[in-house]
Each structure stands twice: as C-alpha cells, then as structure tokens.
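It is worth pausing here to work through a concrete case rather than discussing structure prediction in the abstract. The textbook approach is simple: state the sequence, then state the predicted structure, then interpret. We follow exactly that order.
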Amino acid sequence: MSASHRRLACPWRTVKNNTFSIGSVALGEAATVALICLTALHTAHALGELMNIGYAAGAFDLFHVGHLNILREAKKHCDYLIAGVVSDEMLELTKGRLPVVPLAERMEIVSHIDFVDEVRAETVVDKLETWQDVRFNTFFKGDDWKGTPRGLDLEQRFAEVGVNVVYFPYTAHTSSTKLRAALEALNAQ
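Step two, the predicted structure:
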C-alpha cells in the first residue's frame, strides 16, 4: 500500500465537450458535475487554501470506539480530515512495541470511515516534519498531551507555522492498551 491513500483522487484523463472521460468511457452529465466538484476540492486541498485541513495521527491499533470518537470529533472541526496512521516502525520506536494489526490493515480500516477524507502512513516522529509534507491547518490530539511539556512544545512549534492544536477527551473506558492486556491475559490461559 502506498504511503498515502486518497479517497478523493482525480483519475480522469481527457475532457471533450464539457464531459470527462476515463479511458474510453465517457461520463454522463451528473458524473461530470461530480468530478468538477471533486476537482475543486482536490485543488483546494493541494493548495491548502479555502479549507481547514485537519490532521489526526494515531496508531489506530485494535480499532475501538475511542478512535472512532476522535475521528468523528475531528471532522466536526475541519473541512477535510487526514488520518495519519502511525507505521509499525514508528510505534516500535516511540512505544517500544509493534502493533497487533499491521500498518496496511490499519490504514484499510481507517480509510473506510465515512468522515475520514484521506489516510496516510505516519512515518516520522516530528509532527512539524509531517506538516511540511501535508500542510494541514489544524492538528488533533488526545487531551492526555494537554498542558504537558510535550504538548506545550507541540503547540508552540505549530503556532509558529499557523497550525491550531485542538485536544479531544481521552475515552477512559476503552483503549488499545486495555484491549492488548485482555488479549495477553486470554493467551496466557
């Protein structure tokens, strides 16, 4: 799977008489209008203009309702939501463990959530480096970072490039850590 999976890709090749064609297949008027709208959305995203582009990074391992809640809330705060799924290597580097579910499968799961517009692999530790590549306006993070030295540093660095950091409440009753512990307990029996 590629590092970026774009659900709003623009695959058309030719335009004749205000009708788009994909290969040798001409599209009808409704499909043409839809593709024109997608072109505008894709162009705005590419330019980072006219839209509030949000970025929510996470492992999304053992996907659960807490992940769903963060992505749902993030979409309420932006026009275009990009979910950065942390790579297996980055999880091992930052958390000291590999995920249960491999990157390609985690990306596939997240890509099928209606309010996620784009999914990409998160392959660097420095979120500012990710911003340089993606150019989002809003960064979403769990509130376990709020007020911490790491969170304050993140806010300050993003403020320098005009990115707003929005925190969402941590879903206390479920987490991948708790699910992983339950699986380990079952495997131990």
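Step three, interpretation. The CA atoms of residues 8 and 42 lie 7 Å apart. The chain has a mean pLDDT of 78.
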